[in-house]
Amino acid sequence: MSLDEVHRYRLECPYCGSNELEVVEVLHEIPFFGKVILSSMRCSRCGYRKSDVANLEFKPPARYELKVEGPEDLNVRVVRSSTATIQIPELGIEVKPGPIAEGFISNVEGVLHRVKRIVEQLLRDSESPEEAERAREVLHKIERALQGEFPFTLIIDDPYGNSFIAPKPSQQPRS
Ligand SMILES: [Zn+2]
In CATH terms, is domain 1-57 a member of 2.20.25.420? Predict the structure, then answer.
């Protein structure tokens, strides 16, 4: 992954109205996919933050499915834009797109850590022992998945084609 270009500017914060929202844009070249811009914004006045990924080229709607079968698959590169849905059927997980969804450039392990934080929040907010128990079961599976001991399917669906799962190293086309 090469980082070429950084833009930095300030905008008006949509939450507190101050001009303290700092935006940083970095161009990333993703092998087998293309150029994307990762933008991160943060307001130093109210703490509002958001990050997202946008593609520089027009891409058709895309759906990627990766079978994660062992520790080596945890390093596979993942690009998720706020326009994409993430699903892990084996964990009963669906992360929906939308204005509060975060975009990121990471790998399978990074996706698991993000999902883990969401489930930990569900556990804290659970309203019944059954809900808490279900969340704990999912967390246990995520822990095993982070060790490469729980095979699962990572599905990313993006109607705007901004997202991507790299092919596994063994399946990458030779140049
Ligand atoms: Zn603000």
Answer: yes
How far does residue 41's CA lie from ligand 1's centre (Å)?
10
pLDDT in tens, 123-146: 999 999 999 999 999 999 999 999
Is pTM beyond 0.85? Reply is: yes
Fold entry, domain 59-169: Jelly Rolls (2.60.120)
Distance from C-alpha of 43 to C-alpha of 49, rounded to nearest angstrom: 6
What are the residue boundaries of the structural domains of the chain, listed by start? 1-57, 59-169
pLDDT digits (tens, 9 = 90+) for 153-165: 999 999 999 999 9
CA distance 149 to 13: 43
- One fold for 1-57 and 59-169: no
Distance 19 CA to ligand 1 centre (A): 8
How many residues comprise the chain? 175
Please give the distance, rounded to the nearest whole angstrom, from the Cα atom of residue 8 to the centre of ligand 1: 17
- Residue whose token pair is 């190293």: 169
Rounded to the nearest angstrom, the distance between the alpha carbon of 52 and the centre of ligand 1 is 17
Secondary structure of residue 170 in the 3-state scheme: helix
CA 47 to ligand 1 centroid distance, Å? 6
Q: How far is the CA of 25 from the centre of ligand 1 (A)?
A: 18
